[in-house]
């Protein structure tokens, strides 16, 4: 009786390393087709700290406050946090499979009889069961559960990356809408002045009523554009409220004060493509999914082999509490089971898990390529935005000078209203285009940092 537990423990130790199924090893970056550098990046070292709090490079306190609130109050993050807790508890449950399970019982009773004295009875018992992990099915299950838990961490990180990017995006769009409203209202003031001048000149008989009608039409068009921009402004404002876990309305009133469009930083390091594989949580999550799928092949293969289960029980019963220790009975049993025929179900499960691992590997490779594509596209968009901004600044300066000359000449009667109208429209387009390119440049920065996987590196408890 004393030798059997020792033999059982020795057997478990010897077989612990005999786990069936493939051992997972991460695929090297070179085998995934990852290039050495980006086509538009210089390969400068990317600081993990800068990447983790990249939005602070805009130097906008209001934006920083919104991000801080979103990281604590966003409900999508709350859901992902709950899923992470669930995955971690699944790992705890999987680890419990390596340990024996023990159940205890106790009972007491009272027997009554009219022919003899009443008698009490007491009993205490315990049952134990332990499945020996002969072929590593349990250990592979733990391996899969651990990979799932780590994958849930990266899922949470990916949600954080997305939330940060969305908050910054809507903040930039909010400030753009405010700038567009300001431009429209200033243009409306000029259009009203032009309308007054045209009406006065018509009344003075200097021009025909055509000038007045054209001025009135331009004034109405400009006025009609403002409600449309205000709708965009309200949409961005309301979205920010929801992203920060608040109801639209009073919570975001402080943002209604007009502020400039955030100025994008000019110096951005991108690192090398291999860095992106480590920085992007979606890629790391896909790799963990592959690891879990590989481990589950071993779980399925272990079902093809014999299973050893050890059970035992111990109990005692007496007619008094003091007599419970007088007689103790128990037993220790072991059983070996093997499926003889199941119609090929278990082997089919192995093949199914192998197919799942193949699919997970393809998904992992796809996530790698998509991540590299995102960075390349973001770099192109950033370069394009900066080049366009330079030219649009020149166009704005020229349009502004033309409008000043046209206004003075129209007031002096040296040009017609059609010329003034065209220059005013050109100025409006130039001002709107320059504001839009400022926002596009900032949004290109957002796109790039999101593609690089920025915004989660400082999260507590994360697997780096």
Automatic annotation (TrEMBL):
Keyword Manganese: no
PROSITE patterns to which the protein is assigned, alphabetical: PROKAR_LIPOPROTEIN
Its membrane topology: Lipid-anchor
Cited Gene3D superfamilies: Outer membrane efflux proteins (OEP) (1.20.1600.10)
Database matches in InterPro entries: MdtP/NodT-like, OMP_efflux
Pfam families found in the cross-reference section: OEP
GO terms assigned for molecular function: efflux transmembrane transporter activity
Region forming the signal peptide: 1-19
Keywords, comma-separated and alphabetical: Lipoprotein, Membrane, Palmitate, Signal, Transmembrane, Transmembrane beta strand
Residue ranges crossing the lipid bilayer per the database entry: none
GO cellular component: plasma membrane
Coiled-coil boundaries: none
Subcellular locations according to the entry: Cell membrane
Keyword check for Signal: yes
Primary localization: membrane
Family (UniProt): Belongs to the outer membrane factor (OMF) (TC 1.B.17) family.
Protein's recorded name: Efflux transporter outer membrane subunit
Record organism: Sphingomonas cavernae
């Amino acid at each position: 009786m004393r030798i059997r537990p020792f033999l059982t423990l020795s057997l478990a130790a010897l077989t612990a390393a005999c786990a069936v199924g493939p051992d997972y090893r991460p695929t090297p970056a070179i085998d995934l087709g990852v290039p050495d550098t980006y086509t538009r990046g210089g390969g400068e070292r990317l600081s993990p700290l800068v990447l983790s709090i990249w939005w602070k490079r805009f130097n906008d306190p209001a934006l920083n406050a919104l991000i801080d609130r979103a990281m604590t109050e966003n409900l999508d993050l709350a859901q992902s946090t709950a899923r992470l807790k669930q995955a971690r508890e699944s790992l705890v449950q999987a680890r419990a499979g390596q340990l024996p399970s023990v159940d205890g019982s106790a009972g007491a009773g009272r027997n009554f009889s009219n022919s003899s004295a009443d008698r009490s009875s007491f009993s205490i018992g315990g049952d134990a069961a332990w499945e020996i992990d002969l072929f590593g099915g349990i250990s592979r299950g733990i391996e899969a559960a651990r990979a799932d838990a780590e994958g849930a961490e990266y899922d949470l990180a990916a949600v954080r990356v997305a939330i940060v990017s969305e908050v910054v995006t809507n903040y930039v769009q909010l400030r753009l809408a405010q700038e567009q409203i300001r431009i429209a209202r200033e243009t409306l003031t000029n259009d009203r002045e032009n309308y007054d001048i045209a009406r006065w000149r018509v009344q003075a008989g200097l021009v025909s009523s055509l000038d007045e009608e054209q001025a009135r039409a331009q004034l109405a068009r400009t006025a009609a554009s403002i409600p449309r921009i205000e709708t965009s402004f309200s949409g961005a404002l309301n979205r920010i409220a929801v992203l920060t876990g608040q109801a639209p309305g009073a919570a975001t009133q402080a943002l209604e004060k007009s502020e400039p469009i955030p100025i994008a930083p000019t110096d951005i390091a991108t690192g090398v493509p291999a860095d992106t594989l480590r920085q992007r949580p979606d890629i790391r999550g896909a790799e963990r999914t592959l690891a879990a799928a590989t481990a589950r092949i071993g779980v399925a293969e272990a079902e093809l082999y014999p299973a050893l289960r050890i059970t035992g029980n111990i109990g005692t019963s007496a007619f008094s509490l003091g007599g419970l220790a007088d007689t103790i009975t128990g037993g220790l049993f072991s059983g070996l089971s093997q499926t003889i025929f199941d119609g090929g179900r278990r082997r089919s499960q192995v093949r199914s898990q192998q197919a799942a691992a193949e699919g997970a590997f393809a998904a992992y490779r796809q996530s790698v390529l998509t991540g590299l594509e995102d960075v390349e596209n973001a770099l192109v968009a950033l370069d394009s935005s900066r080049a366009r901004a330079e030219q649009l600044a020149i166009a704005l300066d020229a349009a502004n000078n033309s409008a000043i000359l046209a206004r003075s000449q129209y007031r002096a009667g040296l040009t017609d209203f059609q010329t003034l109208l065209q220059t005013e429209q050109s100025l409006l387009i130039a001002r709107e285009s320059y504001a839009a390119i400022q926002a596009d440049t900032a949004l290109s920065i957002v796109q790039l940092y999101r593609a690089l996987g920025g915004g989660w590196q400082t999260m507590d408890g994360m697997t780096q």
